[in-house]
Fold these 2 entries.
Entry 1:
Amino acid sequence: MNRAQRPGGNSRLPDLLQPPLPRALHPGAWWLWALGLAVAASRTTNPILLALILAVAAYVVVRRRGDAPWALSFKMYLLLGALIVVMRVVFRIIFGGGQGDTILFTLPEIPLPEAAAGIRLFGSVAAEQLLGGLYDGLRLATMVVCVGAANSLADPKRMLKTLPGALYEIGASVVVALTVAPQLIDSVRRVRRARRLRGAQGKGRRALRGIIIPVLEDALNRSLALAAAMASRGYGRTGGVDPRSRLVTGLLVVAGLVGICGGLYGVLDSSAPALLGAPLLLGGGALALAGLLLGGRRVRRTGYRPDHWRPAELVTAGAGIATAALMFLTARVDPGNLYPSLSPLAWPDVSMVPVLAVLVGALPALLTPEPPRSGAPLPVPTAEPRKEPVA
Amino acid sequence: MIRFEDVSFRYDEDAPPALAGVDLHIPEGELCLVAGHTGTGKSTLLGAVNGLVPRFTGGHLRGRVTVAGQGTESRPPQEFAHLVGRVGQDPLAGFVTDSVEEELAYGMEQLAIAPEVMRKRVEETLDLLGIAELRGRPLRSLSGGQQQRVAIGSVLTTHPSVLVLDEPTSALDPTAAEDVLSAVLRLVHDLGVTVLIAEHRMERVLQYADRLLYLPGDGTVRDGTPAELMPDCAVAPPVVQLGRTAGWTPLPLSVRDARRRAGELRERLASRTPGAPWPDDAAAGADTEIAAAGSAGAETPAGPAGLPDDPGCLLRAKGITVTYGSTVAVRKVGLRLAPGQVTALMGRNGSGKSSLLWALQGSGPRRSGTVEVPGGDPGTLSAAEARALVGLVPQTAADLLYLQTVDEECAQSDAESGAENGSCRDLLELLAPGVAGGSHPRDLSEGQQLALVLAIQLTAAPRVMLLDEPTRGLDYGAKRRFGTVVRTLAAEGRAVVIATHDVEFVAAVADRVTVMADGEIVADGPTAEVVCSSPAFAPQVAKVLSPLPWLTPDQVARALAAEPRTEAAR
């Protein structure tokens, strides 16, 4: 895959050593990378490793996000993560009293009636209990932040565009819903302002009606107009595919996806029955694949400037998967330092392998091309003429 | 290319037919203008071309419509996507994606056009419509004219042989409308696309049209060249009206035609002073009925004639400043409104017209400055008190309507303003006679809706009336009627402000024109002076008769009618 050949390569550096041209990566690559980190995070409660994963995710985001609106959402995910940690710890203080020996302080216990036996409110607070909450919260928060990283690195709309043809309708409706939301907010604002002109005071059921009816009528008119516009532009051209085959495809895909979800749960939750794990995952995957292949056969549609998988995408996705895989391996070999001991209390240890595993996740920050900045056209690749016909 | 064979259509079994026995054949490459009043079936005719009528509207269609030999009865609109491109009034309502390039590619993706071809066509279309610099921009951040050009581009990429445009400029300011129409004209000439366009700014397209389809309103369609049909077409641009008044045959279709013929008319008019530019009936309508109906039941008395220290002034604003965040929408604007005066507020989109009106009414934000009205500062009063002093009809008037019938709206309005039962209904009857009380407010035509909202606002008997873009979507007839209403309001001693882009309407209605740019007032003076000082702002009649300061065909008609002897002498 010698892609380094560029038109006008008059630079003194050999082509391979030149920095890659700025372009946006395939959104799927970012998602695979982020999910890999999230899976790695799910395998440990070691705060040092978790902090390292957070740092890696944040570093990559800062280096490789563009300047589109969704790129700014990372901060929100960090806040959400912080909130999760705080909630966990607070809940442990309120409900989780009495576990552990290292009592830090004692809160007055609130006696509950008989019916609520087994639940304790407040009481003595132990270090083990707080740390347990902290570790647990941190793990969940890290997974959430990883998803947030994917969200701010990959354009959600382009992600929907890469959906296989059989799922195209779902993608299209999500995109439409996304564009309609801001319009709805606009019209609510406009109608509320207009109501003052009629001297309305703006309270109670009447006021609600005065706002909702114009807004809904507006929205309804708009969706009819949109439906007509989409139809006249060819949306939903079936070209004579019989409805039975569409139904079969849909069923296969949905059943497959449900299977994959269940299977993933089984794989990730080590306490789940074995049958729920790999077999379900594989079965679901096979079903979904069959559906997609079947559905793809009837698709008569093409994509404009499709994203391609190139070395940078492979590196990114590979880094995420490698992190997850290495973490799984160390869990087999030496689970001790992945789950730091709470009783007896001990400082969390870190060994070399998991740290390396996490650091692999930081590679995309260095090995991928920079994202295009604003002013540049649509954040898509192809500075070079495309040679291979796109299926 | 397009063939209608004995097509009849009704929305409802009992309803009168929207189209009745239409037989048409539109050959390839023609620019075809569809004209007629609102509600005469223009949209129905256009929708029938690719089968949206009746598939999306319901109703019953008889006869056969074919495009390039394909009938709409057997195929859904989707299967016409490669043949017919359709652009509506509101481009934003038809956008499926959210960036310019993707929108342009959308139609092609549906038609499974190969990616390399798509890429090339997108680039071509960007250049063709002059929107290349917008390629990566989100659609919502574009101005109206840019959006409409993207919408046209997005249907052009599939290389349709027919382009159907349903009032593509009705929501745009004049400059943007000009951009869009010149883009369309270029397409006709360069690509030979067959274009079917309904357009209420007829004066822009008429001279280029190969064919005019005129819908008189009974469901039939009259078909012919503009020169054949214009003499007895009820919708006519001012230049055609002027031609009729002056008795020119054939009628001039453009300012250029008319100007070449107008030498003699200019001579005749040179010695005369133009009268009031508004239509005759407006002057006659200056009775006090609206005032009577409005204030009869209202709690607020009519109040003193003007401000205590300045009786000849109904509203005085000083140093009005409106800001949104760090954007300054209105910058230290002063305004003085006299009773009986109609002021037109002009300026491009985003120049601060609406913000100024909302600030004057007191419902919008105002950062600093004062508004004095007899009775207090509307900005410091409650909403109900403010609307009794200053009334405002917003840009989307229908936002104020939320009940099920016209009668309910009227009753609600009486209750809100503490007026006698029936005052709002009486007002509505004066503004727009014959609106059925049981009909749903949203089913009314644009003109009737405007009249209803105006009636609701007038029920509170304000002395100052502000109208934000009231002529949007009104055809010539409705605009003329509305002009009469506005003159009547002024004749009763109200001060009226109209924010508008419509030069012809301003020429026919306003005493005074105030032009805003960038939040500041850049010109202010009598209509003839401001409007005739620049060719871009001048109404058609002024362009034809320049340098004489005549503004409307009505003015000229009255002047000519008043000199029968001279006419006979010639």
Entry 2:
Amino acid sequence: MNFEYTKEEQKFRNEVREWLRETLPKSLSDKVKKYQRLSKQDYEIFMNNLSAKGWLAWHWPEEYGGTGWNAIQKHIFEEEIVKASAPRIVPFGVNMLGPVLIEFGSEEQKNYYLPRILNNEDWWAQGYSEPGAGSDLASLKTTAIDKGDHYLVNGQKTWTTLGHHADKIFCLVKTNTNVKPQLGISFLLIDMDSPGVEIKPIITLDGEHEVNEVWFTDVKVPKKNIVGKENEGWTYAKYLLTFERTGIAGVPNSKSALDHLKMVSRKSLKNGKPLIDDPIFSSEIAELEIDLLAMEIFNLRTVSAAADGKAPGMESSLLKIKGTLVRQKTTELLRKALGPQALPYLPEQFDEGWNEMPIGPEYAGPIAKQYFNMRKISIYGGSNEIQKNIVAKASFGL
Amino acid sequence: MDFSLSEERKMLQETVARFFENNYKDIKKRSDYLALNDGFSREIWKESADLGVISGLISPTFGGLGGTGEDFSIIFELIGKSLCIEPFLSSGILSSTILSSIKNPKTELINQIIDGELLISFAHMEMNNRYEDHFVETKAFLEDDNWKLNGSKSFVINGDSADKVIVSARIDGEINDKNGIGLFLVDNNHITRRSYNTIDGYKAAELNFDNVNAELLCKDDLALECIIKSNSAGALALSAEAVGIMQVCFDLTLDYLKTRKQFGKSIGAFQSIQHRMVDMMLEIEQVRSAVMLASSTFETNSSTRDKNVSAAKNLVGRVGKLIAEESIQLHGGIAMTWEYSVAHYAKRLIMIDHLMGDADYHRDRFKLLSSI
């Protein structure tokens, strides 16, 4: 066992860091640092750079245009992009659909879609959840009826993250309603500009527009847009979810949030002294840091075992649970660290070019908002309660 | 980074595992050993020496075959699994660490420990010094060029059966001065002692010193360094022991959930119970990870070593309580009995938090070492 980064790994880290320094515009990393709203173009600048460098599909197999990096390199890469305050890589095409197409897609689909994802030509959205199908995803109601050369799709998807930027959406649809729910689901690729597709914003509790509702009314979808076999979509859906979950551990994000927390706790005052000198508050920080230290090793152990050919299945659920709790704890302590400075809510502060005086320190503005926003992470990607069901079923033999 | 064990370490793991399995098949055997005069079996201790288990805790520089943080972890995780009570911690870790860290290492004594022929306990704790490394009230003074000790030491694990005892005593200064501490070697038959059992099954002793002759091992900075290093080694070993115990608690509980039926089904069928088991599983993996980190960085500089050991021991304290309490609660009444093994595992797991610094102590030390 050796937990030190090897010379090659250090070298790789420097390479990534150097590249980010050269290519990431400062105006963009400043926006990310200040939690300002990112435009579609902001995301695309970064993703196009990655694409040009050949790093966008960083966890695909090399034969499909991936990087061939090992688990440690991937971890280093994730850490560096967070440290550099780059926008997040929009995951729906490259991290979610890509692996599904590689595993289950037809040759034609691979040849058409994978290069487009690699070149960042399509913005994909995820069409999983419905108003009546959240944790019980298999109970989804959107139907796709076989009309010979096409499917006719009717229904509604929800929580569609950044769907308002999307060109395409991959959807779980019912192709057979007469069988057990899991046996009648298919995985369908739909153009967002097809007639009958309508998108409406959902404003979340922090006042932001990030997610949407997507409505399908008599939408015609060519038969060739089905992935894999009809009625076997549930298998593909679950396969995709394990990819969705591993990233959710969010170790690099929690690490940078912890640094931020320490900075804020040094500046916030209690009885005229830095809050970080308060033994109770600093104890909370210390135990959070210890949890995170352990989780980083747990995460690395899991991903490197997965790279050795063992499936990350059940462990990715454990990581999702702990990762989200730790990350939420950072936002909770940040909020507490501010005291009454957490109260002011100036939505315009998060617009590009806002240059008025903030109320209180500039760092205070996004913190409460971010706390409320981060409530989502223990809900999405399969709620933490669902993750517990998965672990219990997979490994307890009860 | 490399997360796998080397072939050598895997072999060590297999050998030691087999040894403990053979000697500690069921909890009744442990009770039998406990009832012996020393509170453990001298035969098993000697056998473990012949097999090289004690040697695995000592560096080759001093005649051992291991002695790294990783070796401590491998061996102590298995000690935890079997709930073994032989004096691996007192002689194998705490005393050996000190004897090998002084200016003129006591290689001969270490070799006798390796051979299973000599037991040495480390007497640092006092009735009121809690877990501090430098709060020392016991006094040392020179009389005609001979060192003498006065005072008393508490909770000395295996302090009754040890042939010799290493004692921390104050040569100079106030009770909480970092400077002025010495470490002394004393023959145990010169000490007045009162021995007793601890609640988790160990034999311990209160030692009284009334002008007892002692040999100075080291003093001042080096003495404090030795105490800290020995405590960190002990805290790491106990953390690894806790991992082994937690795994057994989890496995026993899971087995029980499958066999115990209420309301016409096995109690493991209830979701509320399943979710609590997932929480336990998750936290055990967290502890395992923290212990891996602490053991793999044990040979680096002392601040990294102590910081990572404190992280592990803090987590062991917090998670240990969860696992011990949940194991008992999910079992129900059966876990309240002396006869059933889970109770003994739970007791040891909780009491590990009372040795070598509890969760609060290590959280505070972690704070200091990482400048929070």
